[in-house]
C-alpha cells in the first residue's frame, strides 16, 4: 500500500494548495465542482486506506483457529464412528468414515465443513448404538453445534475478505478518478490562470511536476499506468498469497500479498504480456493488454491445482 499512501498524501497537498486560493475559483462553477469532487474522492481514499492498513491477520486468525478445532473434533468423531461401524459390521458407514479419515488432514476449509456435516448426519442415524460407545446424545449435539459455528465462521471470513477486495477495487477507482480530474479539468484551469494567479500556478505546478520513479523502457508518458489484480483458487475462491506476477519482457515482478492482491505500477504506456505462477497450481495463459497513459488496468487470475494426487491401487 506504500504507493497508494504516497498518492493520497500528494492529493492532500494539491487540495491544500487549491483551498488556499479560493479567489481563483470564485464563480467558476464547473471547476469548483471538479475541486469538490477531487477533495471528496481523497477523503474516501483516506478512509479506505485506514481500513486496508489493518492487518489481514485480524480476519484470518479466527478462521484458522476455528478450522484447527474443527479438524481435531472431526478426527475424534471419525474414530468413534469407525469403532462403532467395525463392531456392528456396518460396511457402508465404515467405508465412508475410512475415506474421511484419509481426507480430514489435507482437505480444504470448505471440504472440512462438508465432511464434518456428513459425519454428523451419519452418526445421527446410529445414535442409539453410538451411545453405548460413549457418544451420548449431548456429545453429538455439541458436535453439531461446532459444525454449525464453523460454517458461520467460514461465511463471515469470506464476507470480510470480499469486503477487503472490494475496498481495494474502490480505492483504485477513486485514485483513477482523481487523476482524470487533474488531467482533464484542474490542470487545464490552472494553466489558463497562470497570468492572473501566478503564485497559485507556481504552487500547484510544483506538486504536479514532481518526478515519478524511473519506469521501464517504453513509450514516454507524463502519467504512469498500473496493472493490478487478485489471484484466487478456482475451487475455493480463496486468495493465493505469494503468487508471482511478472512481465518478462520488461523484467517486472510482483508478489501477491495475504489478500492475493498484486500491483505493477509506474508503467509507461504500451503493450504488456502478464504471466502468473503459484506453487502447486497450473500455469494459466498469459494475458496480453495495452495500457494507456495514467490507466489502471485489472487482471485477475483464477488458478486450478496442478494435479490431483490419486491413491495408489490396492
Explain what this protein looks like in three dimensions.
The structure is a single chain. The longest helix is centred in the middle third of the chain and has 56 residues, at 137-192. The chain is elongated and about 95 Å long. Mean pLDDT is 85; it is low at 211-222 and 309-314. A hairpin with a 4-residue loop joins strand 2 and strand 3 (252-255). The protein is an alpha/beta fold. It folds into 2 domains: 1-210, no CATH class; 213-308, Sandwich (Immunoglobulin-like), CATH 2.60.40. Helices cover 57% and strands 14% of the residues. The chain is built from 9 helices and 8 strands. Strands 1, 4, 7 and 8 form a 4-stranded mixed β-sheet that branches. Strands 3-2-5-6 form a 4-stranded antiparallel β-sheet, with no helix packed on it.
Main traits of this protein?
single chain; 314 residues; alpha/beta; Immunoglobulin-like; 2 domains; 4-stranded mixed sheet; 9 helices; 8 strands; elongated
Q: Tell me the β content.
A: 5-15%
* Multimeric state: single chain
Radius of gyration: 28 Å
Output the helix-strand order.
Answer: HHHHHHHHHEEEEEEEE
General form? elongated
Overall strand count: 8
| Class by alpha and beta content | alpha/beta
**The number of domains:** 2
Spans where pLDDT lies below 50 across 5 or more residues: 211-222, 309-314
| Helix count from the secondary structure assignment | 9
Percent helix range: 55-70%
Biggest sheet record: 4 strands, mixed
Mean pLDDT: 85
Distance between the termini: 52 Å
Amino acid at each position: 500500500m506504500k504507493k497508494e499512501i504516497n498518492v493520497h498524501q500528494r492529493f492532500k497537498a494539491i487540495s491544500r494548495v487549491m483551498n488556499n486560493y479560493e479567489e481563483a475559483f470564485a464563480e467558476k462553477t464547473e471547476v469548483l465542482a471538479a475541486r469538490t469532487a477531487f477533495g471528496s474522492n481523497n477523503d474516501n481514499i483516506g478512509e479506505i486506506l485506514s481500513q486496508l492498513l489493518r492487518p489481514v491477520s485480524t480476519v484470518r486468525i479466527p478462521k484458522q483457529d476455528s478450522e484447527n478445532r474443527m479438524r481435531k473434533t472431526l478426527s475424534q468423531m471419525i474414530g468413534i464412528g469407525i469403532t462403532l461401524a467395525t463392531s456392528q459390521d456396518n460396511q457402508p458407514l465404515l467405508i465412508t468414515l475410512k475415506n474421511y479419515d484419509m481426507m480430514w488432514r489435507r482437505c480444504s476449509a470448505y471440504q472440512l465443513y462438508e465432511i464434518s456435516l456428513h459425519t454428523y448426519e451419519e452418526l445421527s442415524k446410529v445414535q442409539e448404538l453410538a451411545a453405548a460407545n460413549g457418544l451420548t446424545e449431548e456429545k453429538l449435539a455439541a458436535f453439531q453445534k461446532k459444525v454449525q459455528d464453523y460454517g458461520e465462521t467460514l461465511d463471515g471470513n469470506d464476507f470480510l475478505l470480499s469486503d477487503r477486495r472490494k475496498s481495494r477495487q474502490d480505492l483504485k477507482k477513486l485514485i483513477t478518478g482523481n487523476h482524470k480530474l487533474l488531467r482533464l479539468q484542474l490542470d487545464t484551469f490552472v494553466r489558463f490562470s497562470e497570468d492572473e494567479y501566478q503564485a497559485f500556478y507556481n504552487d500547484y505546478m510544483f506538486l504536479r511536476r514532481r518526478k515519478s520513479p524511473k519506469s521501464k523502457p517504453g513509450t514516454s508518458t507524463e502519467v504512469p499506468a498500473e496493472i493490478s489484480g487478485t489471484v484466487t483458487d478456482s475451487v475455493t475462491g480463496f486468495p493465493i498469497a505469494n503468487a508471482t506476477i511478472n512481465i518478462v519482457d520488461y523484467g517486472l515482478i510482483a508478489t501477491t500479498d495475504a489478500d492475493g492482491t498484486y500491483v505493477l505500477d509506474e508503467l509507461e504506456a504500451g503493450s504488456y504480456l502478464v504471466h502468473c505462477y503459484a506453487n502447486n497450481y497450473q500455469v494459466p495463459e498469459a494475458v496480453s493488454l495495452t495500457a494507456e497513459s495514467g490507466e489502471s488496468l485489472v487482471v485477475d487470475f483464477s488458478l486450478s491445482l496442478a494435479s490431483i494426487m490419486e491413491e495408489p491401487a490396492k
